[in-house]
Amino acid sequence: MIKTEFLSAEEDGNITYAANLIKAGQLVAFPTETVYGLGADALNEDATLGIFYAKGRPADNPLIVHVADMERAREIAFFNKRAELLAEQFWPGPMTLVLPRKSIVPDIVTAGLDTVAVRMPNHPVALELIRRSGCVVAAPSANSSGRPSPTEAKHVWKDLVGKVACILDGGSADIGVESTVIDLSQDRSCILRPGGLAVECIREVLGKITVCNEANSNKPVRSPGMKYRHYAPEALVWVVEGETEQVREKILQLALKLINENRKPIVLTIGNNQVYEGIEIISLGTNEVEAASRIFSALREADERGTDVIIVEGLSDYGLGLAVMNRVRKAAVKVLNV
Ligand code: TXA
Ligand code: MG
Questions:
Q1: pTM above 0.90, yes or no
Q2: 160-188, pLDDT tens digit by residue?
């Protein structure tokens, strides 16, 4: 156990203090526009090893390296034409590019792959922290491995207190789902993880691009992180997908049956939720953008309320809906299509 400091990012001195911790090889959790990250100096092997240890993360799951400017990005990766175009358009922002790596990046960061994942986050605290540390910063989401990603500093505290030197509190993460990971290291570009930047936006720049589903196939895995069960709260997660009316009818049936069995279900709903009278609900808002910003905290809140089954209304794969459904399906033990 180490002492974990919980500091407000609003006090400028705290960002400098945290930057010095990173420079000294310590772990610092910090806000980004997607989710909170757990940062360490990416070129310091011992420091990055600490990330895997603190999260309980499998060593074959590589880390994203965060930068505050293109100059540093070019020090760690080779940028091709597609990468230049996307970086120009969407950085800083919720997009991670997988590119051929340069040799200064330690093997532990890339899990031995010949590529490295790079991102320039769009959050003033993250950018200042990276700049003042003088480092390129390896940072996975700041949750214990397998748990829902943290969108608030208190989520990080719950998972990582005693394991990291410092948590910088910068309020709620805006987007709420992690960055979109795009593999540009091969001739055919492909989306390894849908995320905070909608696929539709990427298509406008690159034209055709496929969303890989390698996590569910028996081909070699290009994004190692996608093969693990993820984002899971303690309660069981069920998701029901289909036309809204049928979905709600089915959920109502399931929830009433569970209540009859003296169990405690909770329904995560989108839009008008009056149909669920008498059943405990958490609203994910009225559209897919709001659902993205609320999904992870809703999963954690359901646990806090002592729920044993979380039933989620499926939403369409349009826009950020794709990222939300990717996370929910990975957390789920049961996916029903009605
Ligand atoms: O929004 C985000 O991306 C957040 C914030 C903190 O920036 N970070 C984040 O990191 O979500 P993490 O470690 O939870 O997820 C990184 C994902 C994993 O699925 C990992 O397998 C994949 O990126 N990845 C990292 N390096 C890779 C590489 N060289 N090739 C393929 N996939 C890679
Ligand atoms: Mg993660």
A1: yes
A2: 999 999 999 999 999 999 999 999 999 99
Give yes or no for residue 93 CB within 6 A of ligand 1: no
Looking at residue 305, the DSSP 8-state letter turns out to be: T
Could you tell me how far CA 158 lies from the centroid of its own chain? 17
> For the segment 73-120, what is each residue's pLDDT rounded down to a tens digit?
999 999 999 999 999 999 999 999 999 999 999 999 999 999 999 999
Contact (CB, 8 A) for 333 and 308: no
> Is the distance from the beta carbon of residue 48 to the nearest atom of ligand 1 less than 6 Å?
no
Cβ(179)–Cβ(119) below 8 Å? yes
Q: Give the number of C-alpha atoms closer than 13 A to the C-alpha of residue 186, restricted to the C-beta side.
A: 10
Q: Give me ligand 1 centre to Cα 274, in Å.
A: 38
Cα first-last separation, the chain: 48
- Cβ–ligand 1 distance for 121 under 6 Å, the answer yes
Question: What is the token pair recorded at 23?
Answer: 């420079």
Q: How far apart are CA 299 and CA 284, in angstroms?
A: 10
H or E segment to which residue 43 belongs: none
Instruction: List, as one string, the DSSP characters of 204-231.
Output: HHHS--EE--GGGSSSPPSSGGGGS--S
Residues of the chain with pLDDT under 50: 215-221
